[in-house]
Design brief:
Blueprint: H1 16-24, H2 30-34, E1 40-44, E2 47-48, E3 59-65, E4 70-75, E5 78-86, E6 91-97, H3 100-103, E7 111-116, E8 118-119, E9 126-128, E10 131-134, E11 144-148, H4 157-170, H5 180-185, H6 191-199, H7 204-234, H8 247-252, H9 259-273, E12 279-284, H10 290-303, E13 307-312, H11 315-329, E14 336-339, H12 345-357, E15 362-366, E16 379-384, H13 392-400, E17 406-411, H14 417-423, E18 428-432, E19 443-447, H15 452-464, E20 468-472, H16 487-498, E21 504-507, H17 513-524, E22 530-533, E23 546-551, H18 559-566, E24 577-581, H19 587-598, H20 602-613, H21 616-620, H22 638-654, H23 661-680
The structure holds adenosine-5'-diphosphate and magnesium ion.
């Protein structure tokens, strides 16, 4: 028997080349392979007679080869092979293109099982490139439910299939972790059966059951993990903050806080006074003023003689936070510093020294701050801005540092409630559901190409009024297959032919970090009028002078993503606009985008997005900050999610800390899932 941790190279047919291809899919061990789940299935179980074959309904049929395969060489690179087959009901001509090697295997007078789709009418049915197997062969491509695997260049579905089959034959699948009580309560397959059936289902129904079981398990493990993390944190004691007076902070603010901001700050102050480490998420739409909430928290930590760290996902954002917080907090006696990758080695060293010596109180930087090389003298609070880049993995890593700082994460990604429960199961949540007063709504329009001249004129008008514009494209470069606006080409076109007299800048994800910072910085300093960009500008950038966001081929983006992009404008006093362009004729897609024109409520949009695309999209995306889910990312329903969550909560209460082999296996599985989360974020 082999072990799950054995490398895939022990399989027959998996040499160095195949192994490399599998590595592309993050498959290295037998376990990885067994956990490489099909993204769908093809039901090839139906067997009919030739007479019963219907156009567009692929099926298996048994037939005899009535003529030796005849190959004609049509032209260079095109060989066509024709074969006559028949059963007792009818005859059929099979046509193959460039498959001489395959068709040579068909022997005159012998019966085979074929699988394919007929086309044509009753006068002359034809079938193109069916697959076939000998009658007494093992069903691999016919007479079965065929799993369809996510693939990579060079790796065929059949080779994944064969490798998985071998792996399942020589080693046991991952151990059962779900308690028997849970399995029976939710009618869930045992692990062994599920791992087998997901790859070799006897029917589509069984495939569905297997998938449900594996998704359930993943959610169960994940929510149990969050619950354990939460329990571990709340079991810790820290010194309660004595000084919770914010009056000096409030009087230093240039504005009055919104009710939502005050509530969030009160909740944080209460956490600080509780003697337990805080784990709080501040969730608020773009522009709801999360930075001030973070500032209040940092102020309190410092007034209680601790250091605070504020981590931003990008250097630009770190810089911006530094500018505004330094101005606000220095007069209040808070010593701030900026720690980013663009400092010289000497500056970095000095800054780190000052942090270690306790000469600075509030350290602002990128997520690299949490790296091991930064030693804090007395870190009491960690604030992570834009938490979807600061996922569960990093949260777990922080805890692993052996300190118990208060943790505050801030997110502008409106996650539907149902998913929020799952993603933030280890956090308390404060919601900023109120925008600062005087904020004007960003008017949003959906237009087609006939509006191009008007869009250009509108950009000109904004620039003439001393404002700036973003133009977002769905692709970086031109790509033969997809007729998408490419940022590089579009920037060139705008600069050369449309706005030769304006300053057009370009920003995309394939640029080096320092280049991106430079372009963004220049735009923020108003050294460019129009910034053509990809979605790299999605997160956090604050250029209040920008009043127009044009999104090209907007149908290529998810609703929540469009909403995030739109949030880059409407941040100042001036009226702002968002123009979605689209060339699609699809009524549903258009309706979806029109919904975005009507509402600016991020949560409403997120719910709509969830309905349209399903939670799989959230779980599959690396940006979500979640561990990479294997089963759940394929597609999953909220029902399963809720059940798993409910079951895991119950399990934690009753058996979670037990010493049964199952409880131990579960805790091991949780560790693995969270480790995988750390590997994959960033
Ligand atoms: P978020 O991070 O939630 O997207 P920010 O913290 O960047 O939002 O705040 C957006 C803008 O609103 C900033 O320019 C900030 O100074 C301003 N702001 C924050 N709170 C208030 C308030 N209560 N009244 C007026 N302006 C505010
Ligand atoms: Mg922010």
């Amino acid at each position: 028997m082999a072990k799950l941790t054995d490398p895939i190279t022990i399989l027959k047919g998996v040499g160095p080349t195949k192994a490399k291809q599998f590595n592309q899919l993050n498959i290295r061990t037998l376990e990885d392979l067994i956990c490489h789940f099909p993204r769908g299935y093809e039901d090839r179980t139906r067997i009919v007679t030739i007479e019963k074959l219907q156009p567009d309904e692929p099926a298996c049929f048994k037939a005899m080869v009535m003529s030796a395969p005849r190959t004609s060489h049509i032209r260079k690179g095109l060989d066509v092979t024709k074969v006559q087959v028949a059963d007792y009901t009818a005859r059929l001509t099979l046509t193959f293109f460039n498959q001489k090697f395959t068709t040579d295997k068909l022997q005159y007078g012998k019966e085979y099982i074929f699988y394919g789709t007929v086309s044509g009418d009753f006068i002359g049915y034809n079938m193109t490139s069916p697959v076939f197997e000998e009658l007494d062969s093992e069903p691999i491509l016919t007479r079965r439910v065929l799993p369809i695997y996510p693939l990579t260049a060079g790796l065929s579905n059949a080779s994944v299939l064969k490798a998985v089959r071998q792996a399942l034959a020589i080693c046991d699948p991952p151990a059962e972790v779900l308690p028997a009580s849970v399995r029976s309560a939710f009618g869930i397959l045992p692990a062994e059966r599920a791992y087998y059936a997901i790859h070799e289902p006897a029917s589509m129904e069984e495939a569905a059951l297997a998938k449900k079981r594996l998704i359930f398990e993943e959610f169960f493990v994940f929510s149990a993990g969050l619950a354990l993390m939460r329990a571990a944190r709340s079991g810790k004691a820290v010194i309660p903050y004595k000084n919770l007076d914010l009056s000096a902070f409030y009087s230093a603010l240039p504005f009055t806080l919104t009710g939502a901001q005050s509530r969030a700050i009160d909740e944080i102050a209460k956490d600080f006074g509780s003697g337990k480490p805080m784990n709080r998420l501040v969730q608020g739409d773009v522009g709801s003023g999360k930075t001030m909430v973070a500032a209040a928290a940092a102020y309190l930590a410092v007034k209680n003689n601790q250091q605070a760290a504020l981590m931003a996902p990008t250097e630009i954002l770190a810089e911006q936070h530094y500018q505004s917080l330094n101005k606000l907090l220095t007069p209040l006696g808070v010593r701030t510093c900026l720690l980013t990758g663009s400092l010289t080695p000497k500056q970095k060293k000095d800054t780190r020294q000052a942090i270690a010596d306790g000469q600075v109180d509030l350290i602002i930087g990128t997520h690299a701050l949490v790296s091991d090389s930064t030693q804090f003298q007395n870190l009491g609070l960690v604030v992570a801005d834009e938490q979807h880049r600061f996922g569960v993995g990093q949260r777990a890593a922080l805890l692993g540092k052996g300190k118990d700082p208060h943790v505050l994460v801030m997110s502008a990604t409106p996650i539907p409630r149902t998913l929020a429960l799952l993603m933030y199961g280890d956090l308390e949540v404060s919601i900023l559901d109120e925008l600062p007063p005087g904020r004007q709504q960003t008017d949003t329009f959906l237009v087609d190409e006939s509006y191009r001249a008007r869009i250009n004129a509108f950009i000109r008008k904004q620039v003439a009024e001393n404002h700036q514009c973003f133009v977002v494209c769905p692709a970086v470069e031109e790509n033969g297959d997809l007729d998408l606006k490419a940022a590089t080409v579009w920037a060139e076109t705008l600069q050369q032919t449309v706005f030769p007299d304006l300053r057009v800048a370009l920003l995309h994800g394939q640029m080096k970090g320092s280049e991106k910072e430079a372009v963004m910085g220049a735009f923020a300093r108003q050294e460019a009028d129009v910034l053509v960009a990809t979605t790299v500008i999605e997160v956090g950038v604050d250029v209040p002078n920008a009043t127009l966001m044009v999104i090209e081929d907007a149908d290529r983006f998810g609703l929540s993503q469009l909403h995030q992009l739109r949030g880059r404008v409407g941040r100042g006093d001036a009226k702002s606009f968002c123009i979605l362009t689209s060339r699609t004729k699809n009524a549903q897609t258009l309706a979806r985008m029109k919904a975005l024109c009507k509402t600016t409520d991020g949560f409403e949009i997120a719910e709509e997005d969830l309905k349209l695309r399903g939670p799989g999209d959230f779980f599959g995306s690396r940006q979500s900050g979640l561990p990479v889910f294997r089963a759940a990312s394929l597609s999953c329903d909220l029902q399963t999610l809720k059940q798993a969550q409910q079951a895991s909560a119950q399990w934690i209460e009753t058996e979670g800390s037990g010493v049964t082999p199952e409880a131990e296996a579960m805790r091991r599985r949780i560790g693995e899932l969270f480790l995988r989360a750390q590997d994959t974020v960033n």
